[in-house]
Design a protein that fits this description.
About 20% of the residues lie in helices and about 10% in strands. It is elongated and about 60 Å long. By secondary structure, it is α+β, with helices and mostly antiparallel strands. It is built from two helices and three strands. The termini are far apart.
Length: about 110
């Protein structure tokens, strides 16, 4: 069972980036740790220790790199944003909730 949270990002679920913003940060960490343990099960010696996941001091505005898309329209305007999977159109955003402010100033 997971605890719901209000996403920090206004386009959560549209951009194709973050999957867990609607879940509490504590539950996000538990889910990610379970995923790592599942992927490693049977692939590493049983005597090997997997360190527990540690929380970031900044759950938002920490990322120093984004995978952005640029689109030039017929009238030569340039749109910068995210390209959700399966969509041609660039999703323009004013800010990204996980990107550092130095990146957000260009969105």
């Amino acid at each position: 069972m997971t605890t719901e949270a209000v996403p920090e990002c206004p386009v959560f679920g549209e951009c194709g980036g973050c999957q867990y913003q609607d879940i509490s940060y504590t539950d996000q960490l538990r889910i990610k740790e379970d995923q790592v343990n599942h992927l490693l099960k049977g692939r590493i010696p049983s005597t090997a220790a997997v360190e527990p996941i540690c929380a970031s001091p900044e759950p938002y505005y920490y990322r120093n790199r984004l995978d952005l898309s640029m689109l030039r329209t017929k009238d030569q305007q340039i749109h910068i944003g995210f390209k959700p999977e399966g969509r041609f159109r660039t999703l323009e955003v004013d800010r990204c909730a996980i990107a550092q402010s130095s990146i957000n100033q260009y969105l």
